[in-house]
Write a structure and sequence with these properties.
The protein is an alpha/beta fold. It contains 8 helices and 14 strands. α4 links the parallel β7 and β8. Bound molecules: fe (ii) ion (FE2).
């Protein structure tokens, strides 16, 4: 069976290997409150940049938002003289709010996510009874990516790969020689993302991961989260295909799909939901925008009782 998006991605990574000018420059900002790694990746020749999986700070008790994390990104982009072409989400996050709309106001860039966000909107639109004002067609985003979509970041080649499993809409974005793989793999010593949210599928996650692991060994992988593994006391968010294939505790070379699905399902059943799942999902399914304000001008987050 041929997998032409994968072949194109592989060729892109090997080309960047041969021509150092086509390697991407990556700066990561780690939010210890939600364990999220946001990445700013840019083309060194044109200074064109992409911001991936930004974080809007949110205090659950008070319902207040802050831009402390996002301001660090703005400061970096300005100091480096970058121009932002894209704000990308690897998926609709359930554990943090996206700062993409605010960052778009500060820095510009088109907002992109996987095309299957419409399936996520359908599922969560129902769970949160979002009603007709909530469009379930992905129109909150500027661009919906499909598997194999190619785009440019300045002089760098880029391609989107659909890697469902954690959610139906997860995308990996490969920019130059670096892959931003969202919630699929975590560091080798921590394993893989959970697959038990509505629309998640452990079997699909395994296949998406094996697809990513067929990229060249030297491919740099940038993760969306790290929780520190037992015995490791620093956060880490960068690894390689080779390191994951050799040592990922869940999906190293030789790991079997049925055993993975069994392990993942058992483990997920014991995990509690992320602290910020209620606000995160309602805001991120709207492209990072708050729910439509009520007649008093205030936006509200709903909590469905006994639904999640
Ligand atoms: Fe996630």
């Amino acid at each position: 069976m041929t997998d032409s998006p994968l072949a194109t991605a592989t060729a892109q990574i090997l080309k960047a290997e041969r021509e150092p000018g086509l390697k991407s420059v990556v700066k990561t900002f780690f939010d210890e409150t939600t364990f999220t790694a946001s990445h700013v990746v840019h083309d060194p020749s044109t200074k064109t940049a992409v911001i991936i999986d930004s974080v809007l700070d949110y205090e659950a008790a008070s319902g207040r938002t802050k831009h402390t994390s996002a301001e660090q990104i703005v400061a970096y982009v300005k100091a480096e003289g970058l121009s932002v072409a894209w704000q990308l989400e690897t998926h609709a996050h359930a554990d943090h709010l996206s700062a993409a709309p605010w960052l778009q106001e500060q820095l510009g860039g088109k907002l992109g996510i996987g095309a299957d966000i419409v399936r996520v909107q359908e599922v969560f639109g129902k769970i949160f009874n979002a009603g007709t004002p909530f469009a379930r067609d992905g129109s909150q985003f500027d661009h919906l990516f499909r598997d194999g979509d190619q785009f440019k970041v300045g002089a760098l080649d880029a391609i989107a790969l659909h890697v469902p499993g954690h959610t139906p809409a997860d995308m990996a974005f490969i920019i130059g020689d670096a892959a931003f793989i969202g919630d699929t793999l975590f560091m080798p010593d921590y394993g893989t993302a959970r697959a038990d949210f509505p629309g998640g599928d452990a079997c699909m996650l395994f296949r998406s991961i094996r697809r990513l692991l067929s990229l060249p060994d030297q491919t740099r992988l940038f993760l969306c989260h790290d929780y520190k593994a037992p015995g490791r006391d620093t956060f880490a968010w960068e690894t390689t295909v080779g390191a994951e294939r050799a040592g990922n505790i869940h999906v190293h070379d030789g790991a079997q799909e049925d055993e993975f699905v069994q392990m993942r399902t058992t483990r997920d059943a014991k995990l509690s939901l992320p602290n910020l799942i209620m606000p995160s999902v309602q805001i991120n399914m709207r492209g990072g925008h708050m729910p439509e304000p009520e007649e008093n001008g205030v936006s509200y987050i709903k909590i469905p009782i006994n639904k999640l």
